[in-house]
Design brief:
- By secondary structure, the protein is α+β, with helices and mostly antiparallel strands.
- The protein has 2 domains: about 10-135, Histidine kinase-like ATPase, C-terminal domain (Heat Shock Protein 90), CATH 3.30.565.10; about 155-350, Phosphatase 2c, domain 1, CATH 3.60.40.10.
- Helix content is about 25%, strand content about 30%.
- It is built from 7 helices and 15 strands.
- The chain has helices at about 20-35, 40-60, 95, 110-115, 200-215, 220-230, 325-335; strands at about 10-15, 65-75, 75-85, 120-125, 130-135, 155-160, 170-180, 185-195, 240-245, 250-255, 260-265, 270-275, 290-295, 300-305, 340-350.
- It has a 5-stranded antiparallel sheet, sandwiched between helices.
- Mean pLDDT is about 90; it is low at about 100-105.
- InterPro entries: HATPase_C_sf, HATPase_dom, PPM-type-like_dom_sf, PPM-type_phosphatase-like_dom, Ptase_RsbX.
- This is TorS-related protein.
Length: about 350
Amino acid sequence: MTTTTVLACEDVAWFRDGESFAAAARGAAAALARRIGLSSHRAAEVALAVTEAATNVHRHAVDGALLLRVVREAGEAGVEFLTVDSGPGMTDVPAALADGASSAGTLGIGLGAVSRLADHFDLHSVPGRGTVMAAQFWPRALDGRAVVASPGASLAAGVTRPISGESVCGDAWAVRGVDTGAGDRPVVLVMLCDGLGHGPLAARASAAAVKAFETTSETSPEGVLGAVHRALQGTRGGAVAVARIEPDAGRLLYCGIGNVSGFLVGEDGRRALISAPGIVGAHMRRLRTFEEPLPGHGALVMHSDGLTERWNPAAMPGLLHHSPLVMAGQLLREAAVRRDDASVVVVKEAW
């Protein structure tokens, strides 16, 4: 079954592992939950789950981090967190999620209880490489159910992380559906922008790209990229790629300028998408759109050059069976570098 949901998200902060890691993440999660209007009971559950997740990372993982952010759908707001680490990974995920499996020094509720507190929970671990875990927490109705119909059903998710030493990321991504008036499944447009350099000026360029993407009436990759080009004039400019997924036609149209990487990933590997040299907002050559067939049961991955292209889906068995957010987190863990802003967006189950 194809979902048409795309959650809006607002990245709040990354927390790097350290002595005050769990306490800082817990305090920020509790404050964020209260700020968006979760009940005191639900906010306490969010804080408990974040503490357990962060403590688990701190005690048992290498190079761990936690992303805390707001997600929005149909006028409702929830809290989402993502943990990423570089090992050692879990050899038996079901055992780690079993009741009573909480490790010494945690709150004792275990990751299984975290999964039950969350309205959506997903975890993927590769022994010897690392683990990524994602959880969503929405307001609850009087009967105890989440107020959104299908938590975690978003067909697209992305992650951005600023270069070490910066608090804002110069990369951004956006996804929107296109009403064509025909066909059973919606057309989906995806954009990723890597603002030149890093810091506030790069973030300004990528924010302008997102605004142009969301407001333009253009629906072709070339048309959207042209609108973004005009919006980025007067900024630093950036590398930008736009993809159009046409499920009923079984094809993807892709147009990119600069160092944004795109891949179609299937069970048999990945296929690279082509971008041309240039700077959107400054020096942009004549645009060219490339057409590729959509892989069965696959995904679209787009990322900035803050990730190397040397990742291999075969090194992350089972990844395609997980949510777009966990896929994005694993790619960030596998391929991101600390010396640049990093961003990755994943679309799956759109065809």
